[in-house]
Please model this.
Amino acid sequence: MNEFLQFLGEPIAQRSLWACAVIGFANGFVSALVVLRRSSLQIGTISCALLPGIALAILLFGLMQLSILIGAVIAGLVVGLGSLFISRTGKADHDTALSILHTTAFALGYIILIRLGLQQKVDDWLFGNIMSMGNTDLWIAWSIGSAAVLSITILMRPLLIYLFDARAAAAMGIPTRALSYGIFALIILVLVSSLQAVGAFLTLGLMVAPGATMYLLTDRATHMFWGGGIIGAAGSVLAFFLSYPLGWHLGATIIVVLGSLFILAWIFSPKYGILCRKR
Amino acid sequence: MVTGHDHICWGGGHHHHGGHMLAVQHLCARYGDVEALSDISFSAACGHTLALIGPNGAGKSTLLNALAGLIPPSHGDILWNGSPLHNTRREIAYMPQRTEVDWCFPITVRELVEMGRYPNTGLWKNVSHHDRDIVDKALVTLDLKDLQHRQIGALSGGQQQRAFLARALAQEAHILLLDEPFTGLDVPGTESLAELLRSLSAEGRLVIASHHDLGTAPRIFDHSLLLNRRTIAYGVTAEVLSPEHLYTAFGKRNITALP
Model:
């Protein structure tokens, strides 16, 4: 216990704790969007597709924070929009195109990272390493998180109309196409900012589980956003305190905690839990 | 039968002769190389219920989408009182088909109806007393006041239809566009929705709906547009659905409009 308290006094521990709270909240907040749009799997494939962007950025510019960020964003956009383009112009449907593009991108990224001699790093990109986050990383995560929360809050009214009833939204004059691209860009940015913490594989859980948990607990869409943020942050912080004494990997612990919360809601939710289902 | 001349226009405060007029002129729409609608022209005054009738693939949904501004026409104009309809977006309320709605979406009846106020409040404006009154009135009119805090999935089919109509009322829209509103309703449900649509039009709205049931059309809609990519007949429903017209539209004998 003493050892743990001593560890908490270290700057690296405090940075990690802050990172857990900030990234957990931002992802949890945005997860409502992913759940309401029913695009979880799509986001999952895109998060894995970020890898080659990172690898290429390292190849071209070295291990620099900003270039990695930009590389990841570009890779996400290329795979996301590219799959859309392929499905619209060819015979294959969107899921097929997305599956092929993202695995190909992932494989390419893996080859490049191995060729660069970054084997040890690969684990960090796949599963995250919060302890390696520096002050700059924390700032980037904080800025992206605040931008996401702020823009969603401002656009909440038209956003909910669009998510619920896209055609009525368009008929009312809401720019639905701009909104859908905006949502896509926002999700990629938040994904990238959490990549260091939980990695390309696990980030999907962070970006779906909190919103999905709230989905089982509430009938109000706005509660899904704020509640998702709180669940994401609280779950991640809880995972931080669990992972050290248990000696578990922090990123993986976050996902396990959030996954467990979802299962608990699935069983015990007062309205929609399987134990208390009215309908 | 209420006509364009003798109704009290619910929009209020407008001076107009013969009702507000929707005029569709030489409308064409295409999907890629396929011409979905060709040279559709008609005009309809507020205070009417208008059915869009035709076989599958005739362009009913396309026409509805074009009226709602969801797809751009490749040619032609849609005018509302002489100016382009889509300059006055709040005049149009669109109601989706029931199968297209996500009934699990975490939203209450009241929140759904409040969505109708968006064209008036926009991003920033607070929801005022005035807005709240309008939402309340829409809920009362459609007998949903007691259900206002229910999640929309916990309503019956007829109540769900009414909730969407309440949103259109809250929007204070003049034109109601409904995509196959009678699909999946039982006989009493059909009767009460028909009654509702008639009373909404009697208050000066223009109700336009795609409809596939020839048997019920004459009882529900005073006017009909029979189409199969082009206009086949337009006018009073009973006259539009004559055997010759139906043969032209459907290409089959023995189709009648009588129940």
In short: Chain A has one domain: 2-266. The domain at 2-266 of chain A is CATH 1.10.3470.10 (ABC transporter involved in vitamin B12 uptake, BtuC). Chain A touches chain B at residues 36, 154-155, 157-158, 160-161, 163-165, 167-168, 170-174, 215, 218-221, 223-224, 279 (CB under 8 Å).
